[in-house]
């Protein structure tokens, strides 16, 4: 596993990040017809990720580890489940060996101030995340999405206060528009505040909007770019089912339809062709393409099987040629 500086933060970590948005589930359904997270298997996968050289782990306070549709009305009982499982898995390791990234913004409870970037919510949310993660500090704390009800200055000040009291080391933004990111840097300069050091967004061979709209901002400001959905929800890896062979469509109809809509993308055949030529899995080709696009990019990969995380971790060893990069991009 290759490592790299995580932006200009001074922290060095693995180029591949393990993400906990979607975790392995049991083969039984609960009262809602959903499949509960298999906690034992999830911990085993996190252990395997660490053994494979992954030292950076991504989560969020709203992650439950399973996909819920709005119609499922999941409530708040499983809020933070991914943080709890990650904390359980990592607590046996030396805290200096790994990096934790978690996020705040989404609704975590029924009260008025249980969401957003207000200081009251951020203070409460970081305290709960620290407890669930069983750690004294969070390496990178991200604003999960823009909050129209809170000014960027207020949000940046709240994050700086958390840095000062030792709750977090650095902060970042996720799913922000380019102009919002630039405005936050401007606000931080004017107010003498530490700016965000990481940006998280979607980017893959099929969806390349990040490349044209945000990558230049990352490089301009010396940020790290954490990329989610680098394999387009498994499409670029040739996977369309979860662990145990249970199709996602059996309990994630809407999500599955979105994935299937990508299945005819021409990029898939290009990835497959190069993978066959090199005798490596499609996932390694797709991730290697991303890693080659910028040294500031850190793809976040999910897994429901130990073999998947081991496979993805080897992508840093695949070095694509200029001709292969062009072929993948259809040039």
Automatic annotation (TrEMBL):
Keywords: Oxidoreductase. GO terms for molecular function: oxidoreductase activity. It holds the Pfam family Aldo_ket_red. InterPro entries: AKR_Detox_Biosynth, NAD(P)_OxRdtase_dom_sf, NADP_OxRdtase_dom. Residues 15-329 form the NADP-dependent oxidoreductase domain. This is Aldo/keto reductase. It comes from Candidatus Sysuiplasma superficiale. The lineage of its organism: Archaea, Methanobacteriati, Thermoplasmatota, Thermoplasmata, Candidatus Sysuiplasmatales.
């Amino acid at each position: 596993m290759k490592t790299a500086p995580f932006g200009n933060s001074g922290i060095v970590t693995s180029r591949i990040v393990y993400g906990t948005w979607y975790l392995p589930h049991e083969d039984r359904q609960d009262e809602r017809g959903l499949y509960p997270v298999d906690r034992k298997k999830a911990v085993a996968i996190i252990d395997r990720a660490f053994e494979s050289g992954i030292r950076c782990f991504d989560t969020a306070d709203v992650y439950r580890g399973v996909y819920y549709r709005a119609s499922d009305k999941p409530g708040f009982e499983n809020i933070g489940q991914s943080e709890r499982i990650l904390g359980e898995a990592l607590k046996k390791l030396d805290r200096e060996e790994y990096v934790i990234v978690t996020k705040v913004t989404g609704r975590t409870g029924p009260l008025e101030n249980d969401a957003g970037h207000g200081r009251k919510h951020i203070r409460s949310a970081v305290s709960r995340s620290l407890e669930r993660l069983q750690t004294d500090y969070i390496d990178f704390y991200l604003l999960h999405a823009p909050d129209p009800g809170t000014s960027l200055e207020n949000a940046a000040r709240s994050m700086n206060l958390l840095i000062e009291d030792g709750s977090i080391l650095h902060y970042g933004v996720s799913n922000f528009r380019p102009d919002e990111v630039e405005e936050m840097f401007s606000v931080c300069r004017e107010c003498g505040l530490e700016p965000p050091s990481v940006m998280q967004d979607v980017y893959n061979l099929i969806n390349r909007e990040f490349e044209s709209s945000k990558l230049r901002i990352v490089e301009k400001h010396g940020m790290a770019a954490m990329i989610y959905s680098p394999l387009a929800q498994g499409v670029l890896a040739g996977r369309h089912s979860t662990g145990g062979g249970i199709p996602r469509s059996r309990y994630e109809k809407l999500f599955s339809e979105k994935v299937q809509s990508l299945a005819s993308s021409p990029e898939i055949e290009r990835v497959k062709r190069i993978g066959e030529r090199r005798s490596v899995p499609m996932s390694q080709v797709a991730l290697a393409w991303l890693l080659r696009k910028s040294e500031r990019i850190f793809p976040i990969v999910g897994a429901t099987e130990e073999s998947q995380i081991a496979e993805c971790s080897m992508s840093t060893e695949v070095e694509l040629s200029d001709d292969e990069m062009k072929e993948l991009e259809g040039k």
